[in-house]
Amino acid sequence: MIYRAAILAVGSELLTPIRIDTNSLVITEQLERLGIEVIYKGVVGDDRREVAAAVRIALERVDLLVCCGGLGPTDDDVTREAVAEVLGRVLVEDERIVAQIEARFAARRIQMPAINRRQAMVPSGASVIDNSNGTAPGLWLEEGGRSVLLLPGPPRELRAVLAWGVERLLEPRSSGLALVRRVIRITNRTESQTEETVQPLYGRWARQTIPVSATILASLGQIELHISSRAASREEAQAVVDAAAREVADVLGLDAYSVDGHPLETVVGNLLVERGFRIAVAESCTGGLLASRLTDVAGSSRYVDRAVVAYANQAKVSLLGVPESTIAAEGAVSEPVALAMAEGIRSSASVDVAVGVTGIAGPGGGSTEKPVGTVAVAVVVPGEERSKTFRFVGDREQVKFQATQAALDMVRRMLMSSSPSA
Amino acid sequence: MIYRAAILAVGSELLTPIRIDTNSLVITEQLERLGIEVIYKGVVGDDRREVAAAVRIALERVDLLVCCGGLGPTDDDVTREAVAEVLGRVLVEDERIVAQIEARFAARRIQMPAINRRQAMVPSGASVIDNSNGTAPGLWLEEGGRSVLLLPGPPRELRAVLAWGVERLLEPRSSGLALVRRVIRITNRTESQTEETVQPLYGRWARQTIPVSATILASLGQIELHISSRAASREEAQAVVDAAAREVADVLGLDAYSVDGHPLETVVGNLLVERGFRIAVAESCTGGLLASRLTDVAGSSRYVDRAVVAYANQAKVSLLGVPESTIAAEGAVSEPVALAMAEGIRSSASVDVAVGVTGIAGPGGGSTEKPVGTVAVAVVVPGEERSKTFRFVGDREQVKFQATQAALDMVRRMLMSSSPSA
Fold first, then answer.
1. Among A33, A184, A308, which would you mutate to test the B interface (most chain B Cβ atoms within 10 Å of its Cβ)?
2. pLDDT the model gives residue B137
């Protein structure tokens, strides 16, 4: 039975100031689902001695060690060797894996480079987990009541191998206790405003037979409340968390835009589909990010008609029909220009919903009156139009993100106050 | 003398699927500057036994252990106790710290909560590092040639204490060796193809008086080669790394698009500025991501004119002048349509450089002939036009990213083969 796990990420790049292990988040999510607790995480470089030491230490402390990374074809990929050494296994070439890797390259009309044969080396006694998204298979080893799962580092490959490993190897060995989490996403409030509203619920949640714990995570443009519970069955934990999520949604009202972790673009997409509306957007300072977020949603071609990024003033005039006089009188960053942009694209695209965004993302271009971070957003829906000016803090990319977040939230609120068409 | 370090982040939230330790990046940056190598990183929860075990293990392996987090006032802040236990010290209340914390609260006209006295508990023999941004002071301990630095977890507080600790404690104990790193970014090759080309350099680099080490990082649409070197002075290390970067650039030729870690949009932006060109893009499946990447670069308003996201076929016709007959004959995802999109936006925007991208990002919309991931890209520069069809793997967002990467790379290669205007 597996109760306690450790995760070891292998890769010298993960020990630099420029890159961080995020695979462990995906792995933790899967382990938590099975009620397996992660008691520590480690990161080591591509150094066989260090990897071996870390593996040895971990196996003294946990039932399951999940390693990710270091299964590539190159000399600095040493996880296979290090684990084999610690468990006293020899590495043997697996002909079936060689054939699979060759086939993968053949499908792309490339001959398999000789170095890829290294990926077919398997510690004796290991089970091989096919990798449908790459050449490095996963490996599963057991030794003295402990288990070791080796996963490839590239996230797509890791997910594929992990999914298979969870289903066939971990689920049968897990205790049955389940942890369920839910993410509530919030706009229009600061972290402390959210905390003040939600805190009265915490005490009761803590005293319940199956307690619920909560934590608030804040970043620019987004507040998240994470609630979780652990119970004998997934269903029990889920019921408790669902009830808590409903209480949160009640106290936060419209400010909670998702109670199941969906991003704002998905929430807006669902509203557009429900109402049978199509959308077009006219962007300046967000530079295409608003359109890109809308089209990140699978199936968005049903409701996204077009977007125009009018970076140059001339583009605002010729593509969107913004009157030159409005730009001259109000400035390119102004609510009248944002409205003219939205109206321009709505009429040229013949859509129901249109957005105009114009602002100063920085670092240059600010003034005393309109500092960097000033963004005007306008939204037009059937029967209503609104515009609003924001002042965001942060760097260029943060201003871009917050501006798209504000625009999507305006669309959401306006669509929610208009009733769905029959 | 401190050569090897480990970083231990303490906090149960860092073992969940939703939050990750990023403090270690800041700490690593400071340690690298002093030539101190981080050989591993760990994360443990707010559990005194686990923290103590991790501290004990680390002190067997490194000269310096940096812990962050767990210095707060609440019961689950256990780092002080755990470290004192491992080093066999008793905790003593430090009256000077009590007074400082009281003063901090007094300045906010709040009486110091009793629990904050815990933050004044100091392991005997520890040096106290004032925290100008919070109530938890940093602590420095030495034992048997090993050093332990305890930092508060909140990033602002950590930075303040770390800066002081680096200057007064670490710098005098560091070897004076400096580490320099450089990131070379590559397109148009697989990880193994890159490795095969670069590998012949590794041996020589390893045998140099000042050796250079290298590691390859691969993700969809992007290969990175990280090279680094450690020398008696920053200048020496820099010179060696610069020379190695030049060698890599030589063997990879045009496939190395940046030898100093810049993203492709920055490289393309610089080429546009050099040549005095303006750019406009017409996107379909990338949904605005290409424009968003181009405009992520500060100052891009100098050369980005406009972008059109023509998601609906009708938008391709009306906004970009793509002939309906071309769409009917070739399909919306085809090189002739990509070319017509590029040409359409080039003539309406009167720019020098134009891009057209059309494809199937998935998950729906694929066919046997044109499966999900099929993307046609066309680029027009003065005197030349090119189009190419790609087949990308991955999910919707990965296809979008790879398509923008391919488009930017085509622009880059075509601009490089056209000479800069005088």
1. A308
2. 92
Q: Which residue has the higher pLDDT, A233 or A387?
A: A387
Within-domain flag for A296: yes
- Look up the ipTM and state it: 0.80
Q: Do B217 and A13 touch (CB under 8 A)?
A: yes
* Mutation site for A-interface testing, chosen from B191, B219, B260 by largest number of A Cβ within 10 Å: B191
Rounded to 5°, the CA angle B79-B83-B86 comes to 145
* B310/A288 Cβ within 8 A: no
More confident residue, A375 or A103: A375
- Provide the 10 A C-beta neighbour count for residue A104: 17
Q: What are the pLDDT digits (tens) for A156-180?
A: 899 999 999 998 999 888 877 888 8
A422 occurs within a structural domain: no
Same domain, B196 and B159: no
Dihedral angle computed from the Cα positions of residues A85, A89, A95 and A97, in that order, rounded to the nearest 10 degrees: -60
User: Residue by residue, what is the 3-state secondary structure of chain A?
Assistant: CECEEEEEEECHHHHCCCCCCCHHHHHHHHHHHCCCEEEEEEEECCCHHHHHHHHHHHHCCCCEEEEECCCCCCCCCCHHHHHHHHHCCCEEECHHHHHHHHHHHHHCCCCCCHHHHHHHEEECCCEEECCCCCCCCEEEEEECCEEEEEECCCHHHHHHHHHHHHHHHHHHHECCCEEEEEEEEECCCCHHHHHHHHHHHHHHHHHCCCCCEEEEEEECCEEEEEEEEEECCHHHHHHHHHHHHHHHHHHHHHHEEECCCCCHHHHHHHHHHHHCCCEEEEECCCCCHHHHHHCCCCCHHHCEEEEEEECCHHHHHHHHCCCHHHHHHHCCCCHHHHHHHHHHHHHHHCCCEEEEEEECCCCCCCCCCCCCCEEEEEEEECCEEEEEEEECCCCHHHHHHHHHHHHHHHHHHHHHHCCCCC
**Beta A64-68 vs A4-10: how paired, if at all?**
parallel
- pTM, to two decimals: 0.82
Residue A189's CATH number: 3.30.70.600
Question: Would you say A240 and A205 are in contact if contact means Cβ atoms under 8 Å apart?
Answer: no
Of A2, A86, A96, A4, nearest in space to A44 by CA: A86
Of the candidates A313, A333, A334, A335, the one whose C-alpha atom is nearest the C-alpha of residue A324 is: A313
Residues of chain B with pLDDT under 50: 422
The reported pLDDT for the residue numbered B421 is: 52
Contact B295 A287 (CB under 8 A): yes
CA within 13 Å, CB half, B16: 19
Residue among A297, A285, A292 nearest A338 (CA): A285
CA distances from B102 to A409, B58, B72 (A): 43, 35, 15
Cβ contact B291–A296 (<8 Å): no
Show the domain range for A193. Answer: 178-258
Report which secondary-structure segment, H or E, holds B408: helix B396-417
- Report the phi/psi class of residue B373: left, alpha or beta, with left for phi > 0 and alpha for psi in -120 to 50: left
**Nearest 5°: phi and psi at A323?**
-65, 130
The CATH code of the domain that includes B289 is 3.90.950.20
Q: Are A261 and A180 in contact (CB under 8 A)?
A: no
Of A318, A299, A300, the C-alpha closest to A310 is: A318
Give the domain-ending residue among A258, A290, A315: A258
- Is A37 in contact with B51 (CB distance < 8 Å)? no
Helix (H) or strand (E) holding B32: helix B23-33
Last residue of a domain, one of A211, A228, A258: A258
> Which residues in chain A have Cβ-Cβ distances shorter than 8 Å to B14?
41
C-alpha A179/C-alpha A227 separation (Å) is 11
Are the beta carbons of B404 and B361 closer than 8 angstroms?
A: no
Residue A124 corresponds to which amino acid? S
